[in-house]
Q: What sequence folds into this?
């Protein structure tokens, strides 16, 4: 294990523009972190995967340096994220000093606490996986499947395009197919007038033609 020989770098984050950073800066003052060695994310939620201040800190930190924070939740989105970040930093020879949590990875006690944090992170991942699997099973039992439902199929898209090419208006096509006008615009291209205008029999089966008539009549 490397010993502390590098620079103490501070990280400060507040989630909203109305929150005050001063408490964290005061703690970093007492911890001996120079103001020029501090990285700040102001008004940035911890759920953000990219944070300019933290990204810059992780890019600048060197082996033997110590990252000092007021609390661990300042640097991570979740227990799992904090554990992974600390593991990555530890592998790089970088220490973590969390003032309020009393955790310093340069000490045996601090390293033991990090191991416990990793265990809790693994439990959190397992709980999330279990909830996801249970949710999908419940949805499947109710006849639903995960993911975004498809608004149209390929055949319907071809029908919509043919109708647009034949000169039909988008609202009329939407009513005939039972979809929204926005869907028609999304699944079709700018009309290209065909040399021969297709007939309804070429576009629809008898049952589909009947359904289209019913959709149009219901409007």
A:
């Amino acid at each position: 294990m490397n010993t502390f020989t590098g620079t103490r770098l501070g990280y400060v984050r507040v989630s909203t523009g109305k929150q005050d950073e001063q408490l964290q800066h005061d703690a970093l003052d007492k911890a001996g972190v120079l103001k020029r060695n501090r990285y700040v994310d102001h008004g940035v939620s911890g759920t953000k995967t990219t944070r300019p201040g933290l990204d810059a800190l992780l890019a600048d930190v060197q082996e033997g340096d110590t990252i000092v924070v007021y609390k661990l939740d300042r640097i991570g989105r979740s227990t799992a994220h904090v554990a992974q970040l600390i593991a990555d930093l530890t592998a790089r020879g970088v220490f973590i000093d969390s003032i309020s949590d009393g955790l310093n990875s340069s000490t045996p006690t601090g390293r033991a606490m990090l191991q416990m944090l990793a265990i809790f992170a693994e439990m959190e991942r397992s709980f999330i996986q279990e909830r996801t699997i249970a949710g999908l099973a419940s949805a499947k039992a109710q006849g639903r499947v995960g993911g975004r439902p498809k608004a149209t199929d390929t055949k319907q898209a071809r029908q919509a395009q043919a109708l647009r090419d034949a000169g039909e208006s988008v609202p009329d096509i939407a009513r005939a197919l039972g979809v929204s006008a926005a869907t028609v615009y999304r699944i079709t291209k700018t009309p290209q007038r065909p040399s021969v205008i297709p007939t309804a029999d070429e576009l629809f089966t008898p049952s589909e033609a009947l359904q289209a008539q019913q959709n149009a009549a219901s409007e």
About this structure: The longest helix spans residues 108-141. The first strand starts at residue 8 and ends at 14. The CA atoms of residues 13 and 74 lie 6 Å apart.
